[in-house]
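Researcher: Here's my situation. A collaborator sent me these components and asked whether they could plausibly form a single complex. I don't have experimental data yet, so a predicted model of the whole assembly would be a useful starting point for our discussion.
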Amino acid sequence: MGGVETRHRAQRALERRPCGGAGPAKKAMGFAAVTIAVVASSCAPEDAPSTLDPRGPGAARIAGTWWLMLGISTVVFLIVLGFMAVALVRSRRAGPVPQGDVRWGEPVVIVGGVVIPAIILTAMFVVSLRDMAALSAPMGDTTMTIAVEGHDWWWEATYSDPAATTANEIHIPVGQPVELELTTDDVLHSFWVPQLQAKTDMISGKVNRMWIEADEPGRFRGQCAEYCGLQHAKMIFYVVAQREDDFEAWLANEAKEAADPADPGAVAGEEVFMNETCAGCHAIRGTDADAQLGPDLTHLAARATIAAGVLDNTRADLAEWIVDPQGVKDGASMPPSELSAQELDDLLDYLESLE
Amino acid sequence: MATIAERLETVWGEGPGLGTSLKTVDHKKLGMKYLYTGLLFFVIGGIQSLILRAQLTAANLEILDPEAYNQMFTMHGTTMMFLFVVPTLSGFGNFFVPLMIGTRDMAFPRLNAFGYWIFLAAGLFMYSSFLVGKAPNNGWFNNAPLANSEFTPGLNIDFYALGLIFLGISTTAGAINFIVTILKMRAPGMSINRMPIFVWGELAFAFSIVFAQPALTAALVMLELDRKFGFAFFDPSKGGDVILWQHLFWIFGHPWVYILILPAFGIVSMIIPTFCGRPIIGYTWVVVAEMATAVIGFGVWVHHMFATGLPQVAMSFISAASFMVTLPSGTQTFAWLATLVAGKIKLKTPMLFSLGFIVLFVVGGLSGVMFASIPFDQQTTDTYFVVAHFHYIIVGGVIFPLFAGLYYWLPKMTGKMLDERWGKTSFWVMFVGFNLVFFPMHITGLLGQPRRTYTYLPGLGWDIWNAIETVGAFMLAFGILLTFVNWYRSARRGEAAPDNPWGGDTLEWATTSPPPHYNFEMVPTVRSLHPVWDQDELSHGRQSPERGGHPLADGHETFASSMLDGRPQAVMEMPHESPWPVLLTLALTVMFYGVLLDAYALAAAGVAASGAAMMGWFWPKGETQET
């Protein structure tokens, strides 16, 4: 079955890379650099969203600038420490303290405090401008646009060709820049996938645009980076980068309406969904449920996580979320439900059929 | 015939008791009040930070529920930024600016008292929010539209906005008082190029406040109009603009950071020469750098908004300014370093804190420059990297100098020495604890941990660093506690402090420890940038009239002098203790609670009472028109 096939491919894409994968060469300079480099390249946890382990050209360029700036900073810091060390050693000398002007005094202040910093800062400014130019160039080469809207506290992604809507999991094809059209339904949020690209805020009453690109298939963690109230901490999402044909297949499946449930439990579950509060907020394309308040659930079963990246999409976690959403995420708009065990079981059957 | 000292004591002395405590206009008593109250808020904000850190020790902990956590991190930031640092610096400023410039009080003593009482009232006003469980919960920069009543309907944001408008009265009054005092009250002969660097720092601080505060007050008034009267400045659904809030807040907020640090630089620039036994190298450059920081500080606010999608060209200018603002800091750092190398360091506690400051401030400065790079800023803004950076600046760059200042000046303020061994132990525990809590935050930020989150999920590479940070936080707190214990011990059984325990060069060391009510028996004539070093006759506090001392013992008097040359222009009659500042504060408190609770009759009563209090304040009292 096509759906199953797609799901398997998506799962393959979701398979996490073994840790210890070779990152880009790191120009580690000085003790601080070494410390951080060790941390960055150490056997990082599977989902670690490290900016120092970039997997796309945007984040890679910024990481390069970081290592450069860290190198310069380390040198400057060591020079300062050197001055202090010299001062402490010289303080042991005998004799009175010279009171008058020391010949080298003001020149040190001017050269060390103004001239040399001005040269370094000018160079850094030029690097920063070149980064800006390089990072805005791919906006002209994007192959597709995905509309991403922030909500308290989840993410909605809408594809246009073919049309599809999903939540908290954004699939992109690898190796090409994809444009994101960022908006918010309520307060400020910020779209951030550290391994792919710098963040861009989602501003009420405004559309912001950015691009993301992944070099290789994989799953990259993102999280809201602008304080957005009670559950700002639990507004997570994933970007899943797939090979082009896998991506096309995924999108084709997402664009489809939900298949009618086949097994009896799922059929009963659909009844529960339509008659209980679920359909008041969620849409399942191809059914009567078309409300837009919560995430579109048409292909819920194809997603790896629920509740905006807080829980895995397992039967047990899904049940926990349905029964007691506030227990997972206090303040979430979804009301708790009082289903019988049978109703819950049927509902889970139905939701798990939405591949 | 009474001696001059006896006459001055009669004229300047204030009676004992609670009444005097409420009515005092003595800049030294008000300075101590500012200092104690500021440090009390420091302790409260510090305890909040320990609770926050405890919650973040490991993934998925929930000591506080999300709402309580959000209120607490908001109040931690708001307390530290508004209720601790500026009042504490004002405390040192109040106590020492008049002493350092050789005068007998601030220019507007009653306004000075008013500033203190307003600060206390506004602080209590904001903290009363905890009594109803509605503390501000939107962070210290309180972004719209989350601050709008649609998203935060409770009183939380009203406590924040009205509290800060209220506090702004105090800050503004204090700043104007500093400017006038510094420019118009200097001792004869203290031309502007003989002004101690700490006084320059307070001047830069005061001017920056006067220009920055209105932006905040305007933004807060607009926000309250939105919230209470249905205006729509920050409501995009009615044509408002949420970015406007950020512009207004940060055009205030970035200069505010320099407002915090400039007097702290000033403290360090006093301590380093004293403990190097020689003048600072490059005095003029340091002064120019302080002023340049204050000015350029107004041109960098947009670097707090690089991720909001502003046009790239506009951002490049701010990026350039943000790189540039590093230069004056570099200048000052190299002036300190050059002075260290030229002098002979005596490693007393104040010096140890100053050296620690240089190390930490340089780290914070270097990470700060990185944010001038727009792409790097966009990657790391709103992460723990930023939290690391600004704590290196505000704890390393401001609190370490404040502690240096405490060890340096408390003997002058209380007349009792602090214990060196306790002081040095406190420094090392603080220094190590500080780096344990804040250095790893650079790493967690780079590893993708966003700030302002009440918890995080496990398995992201953040756990170990967060655990280390919490250990460091408690260590830092313990180090701070050691200084407070030291202070307490010194008050009980400290050695008596001599007039000039460290061999300092500025005028506060030319009088007794603690100074008398009238500061100087003879208002001195200054002939040097380092009067106490260069003018032997000052070293025992009584410059004879033949050498230029002025008793001014015929009334409650001090000099007004010319702005640049410090030539005496007039003898000013100074006001006595007064009940009106505290009464006016009470009336205004009633007004602010009235507005807070939408009880406009109560607010009107507060306004009427304020009017009455001001009439009392300004009521003519015969010959002299006191201000």
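Model: Some features of this prediction you could bring to your collaborator: Residues 356 and 431 of chain B are 7 Å apart (CA to CA). Chain B touches chain A through 88 residues (CB under 8 Å).
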